[in-house]
Amino acid sequence: MNEVYIITSESGDEYKLQFTTERSGIIADSILDQLNENGIEVVEIGLGRTKGLNVTSHFVLAQIEECIYDLMQKHRNVVFSFFCDFIHVVPSKKNIPVQEYRSRLFSAMFDRFVSLHHLEGLCNHVVVIDGVVEKFYFHIIYPKEYEAYADMISEGHQKDFGKPE
Fold first, then answer.
1. What pTM, to 2 d.p., does this model score?
2. What percent of the chain has pLDDT over 70?
3. Cα–Cα distance for residue pair 124/86, rounded to 1 Å
């Protein structure tokens, strides 16, 4: 799977939202192979701003939420993984690292979406890894019945992230 969506804000900023099952090396191949043997597909979410510098609006966040939910409805055997990168500076008045800000924003967006749509059994597991210089944040989004698979990914991140296979 490789699906790309371009989202444009009211102010003209553009965001690229990508869903892929191509292996990026963020999750160990051994874990992906084991999940695949159990019929579970891991979809990595990539999100990047491609144009503009305005604060990300609720309109854009709602579109991102809808894309993730639509894909979950189409593909029932999916666990999503989202790595909060620190490549682009995020406009913020908060005095926290970019990755932490993105992680908090993603969690708030997820919680709002689940609440608004009265969804039950949809989970967002945040994995925080202490790096040498800063913390790294991952999100694993999954239906409750896939909790064991999400735990495998989380444990793999804790054990292997940043280490060669």
1. 0.84
2. 90
3. 20
Q: Which residues contact 103 (CB under 8 A, 6 or more apart)?
A: 84, 126, 128, 137, 139
CA distance 82 to 64: 12
Tokens in use for 53?
A: 């510098």
CA angle 54, 86, 128 (to 5 degrees): 125
Amino acid (1-letter code) at residue 91: P
d(CA 147, CA 142): 7
Could you give the CA distance from residue 100 to residue 108 in angstroms, rounded to a whole number?
A: 12
* Long-range pairs, 94-98, Cβ under 8 A, ≥24: 97/134, 97/135
Q: How many CB atoms lie within 10 A of CB 139?
A: 19
How far apart are the C-alpha atoms of 82 and 146, rounded to whole Å? 16
